[in-house]
Amino acid sequence: SSPTFSPDGKTVAAVWGKIMSWDVSTGEVKNLNSNSGGFDAIKFSEDGSLLAAIGHDDLNNITVSIWNVRTEKLLTEMLIEDIVELAFANNQTLISVGDDGEVTFRQINSGAITKSFKTNVKSQSTDLGRIPNFTFSPNGKFLATLNENQTLQI
To answer: Is 22's pLDDT higher than 50?
Structure first.
């Protein structure tokens, strides 16, 4: 995964099998620890206070780990199947995980599903049924998804 700046530009995080973050002003390096065996992708919350990572455990199950960036505390680890992309909801009480045409909202602290829906995109090819990109509106009330077959849904 490419290095990622926090929205405020004060922290850079990157994946080298594990998650590392750097304080831009001091150069201090932090290793964010979890029970997962390795990581593939990371994403900061809108205010930069949380960092989520898609990874896998020792049994090769897909995991999402979420840390408090300031305290380096691991808040939760969730087992989730077939993740395509993840994002934080603007209120940071929910995380959305795209999963083979399905969008699922979860509570960050518990991983409990609060809402789930299938997209209207139907295809014989599983690649076209995936949701590679999505974003929340600035007020957090809308979710826009863009599918690989160029279908935009709000």
So the answer is: yes
Per-residue HEC secondary structure of the chain comes to CCCEECCCCCEEEEECCCEEEEECCCCCEEEECCCCCEEEEEEECCCCCEEEEEEECCCCCEEEEEEECCCCCEEEEEECCCCCEEEECCCCCEEEEEECCEEEEEECCCCCEEEEEECCCCCCCCCCCCCCEEEECCCCCCEEEECCCCCEEC
Cβ atoms of 10 and 25 closer than 8 Å:
yes
Other residues' Cβ atoms within 10 Å of the Cβ of residue 106: 24
Strand order in the sheet with 152-153: 133-136, 143-146, 152-153
Rg of the chain over Cα atoms, rounded to whole angstroms, equals 15
CB 45 within 8 A of CB 87: no
pLDDT in tens, 61-96: 888 889 898 898 988 888 887 676 788 886 667 777
Q: What pLDDT sits at residue 123?
A: 37
